[in-house]
Amino acid sequence: MSCLSKTFKLNNGLTIPTIGLGTYKSEANEVKEAVKYAVEIGYRHIDTAWFYGNEKEIGEALLDIFREGKVKREDLFIVTKLWNNFHDKKNVVPKLKESLSYLKLDYLDLFLVHWPFGFKEDSCPLPTNSNDYSDVDYLETWEGMEDCVRQQLTKSIGLSNFNKEQLDRVLKNCKIKPVINQFEVNPNNSQSEWIKFCKDRDIVVTAFCPLERIGKSREPGYPSATVLDAKVLEIGKKYNKTPAQVVLRYLLSLGITIIPKSVTKSRILENIQIFDFDLSDEDICYLKSLNKNYRVSAMGQYKDHKYYPF
Ligand SMILES: NC(=O)c1ccc[n+]([C@@H]2O[C@H](COP(=O)([O-])OP(=O)(O)OC[C@H]3O[C@@H](n4cnc5c(N)ncnc54)[C@H](OP(=O)(O)O)[C@@H]3O)[C@@H](O)[C@H]2O)c1
Question: Which InterPro entries does the annotation name (predicted)?
Fold first, then answer.
């Protein structure tokens, strides 16, 4: 039987559930039921973002959940993210307050800077050309994030899609340390050095696109999804598990948190049933060997921005 922990301790003493429900591209008409079902079957961590445009529907789900009374606010770990148009320090607290009002919450568990690069406010949400880039330094943004903690609007703050130099620059200049770095990790992009780099700095990693966004939009040239790999299917058969469960279990073995997205009840359930088996060293070695350093989510159209991370 697996002895995997269901939570990780953060560097501020709080804890984060190792598996959360992702909600990017979860449409308004499906996300409410997905969140309610996920919480009903045991998920305690929900990942969203202002950019996903579904905070209001997630807020409605949370309202229903708390009204029912079986799960309380303090039992859940709710994450949202500051979008790139709002990197000016003066915008950070107001944007968090706006997200809280959509989510119908008094406080957040974790607020992340979604990307290190900013856009001008009036090019919302995505610029058409580089004239719409803003050169606000993410250190200024971070000061706004720290204000969010001081005002008790969020318990923790963190980063997403920052590179090593950017992360170290924040650590060198911050008053409140980031607890999390959220970035892409999956067998096609195993990021082992980067995970170690974060762990060495006492920063927990959250893996997005853990299932390589099966069947959805990808950067050109992206390899086939690992869940379609014949050997991964074989590995799953040994344990009576699906390829997606093998992949998610592998990611947990790296000592990171994961946020697979689904709006399909059977898959939401499947994705959390990964704590009752162990992969052999040989299986883990095979999954490690699949690394190709490909990214599903690179935002490569902004690579000429001075703070583009990759
Ligand atoms: N910080 C960032 O910049 C960033 C970037 C990307 C993502 N994220 C976060 O990370 C979350 C996860 O990443 P993602 O949504 O891009 O990709 P993902 O979780 O790797 O893949 C989601 C896709 O896989 C399908 N799926 C889920 N479980 C499955 C299963 N057991 N078997 C087969 N297919 C399955 C889903 O379909 P159905 O929904 O139709 O079931 C959906 O099409 C996001 O939702 C978001 O919360 C953050």
Answer: AKR (IPR020471), AKR2E (IPR044488), Aldo/ket_reductase_CS (IPR018170), NAD(P)_OxRdtase_dom_sf (IPR036812), NADP_OxRdtase_dom (IPR023210)
Looking at every residue in the chain, the average pLDDT score rounds to 95
| Domains, in order of start, for the chain | 7-302 (3.20.20.100)
Of the candidate ranges 1-15, 264-278, 289-303, the one whose mean pLDDT is the lowest: 1-15
- b vs e for 208-233, b when ≥16 Cβ sit within 10 Å of the residue's Cβ? bbbbbbbeeebeeebeebbbebeebe
Is residue 15 within a helix (H) or strand (E), and if so which, with residue range? Answer: strand 15-17
Query: Among this protein's residues, is 138 annotated catalytic?
Result: no
Tell me the per-residue pLDDT of 206-254, one tens digit each, with 9 for 90 and over: 999 999 998 766 666 678 899 999 999 999 999 999 999 999 999 999 9
CA of 214 to the centre of ligand 1 (A): 8
160 Cα nearest atom in ligand 1: 1
Pocket test for ligand 1, best of 208, 247, 251, 266 (most atoms within 8 A of CB): 208
55 lines ligand 1 (CB under 6 A): no
Q: Are 45 and 15 in contact (CB under 8 A)?
A: no
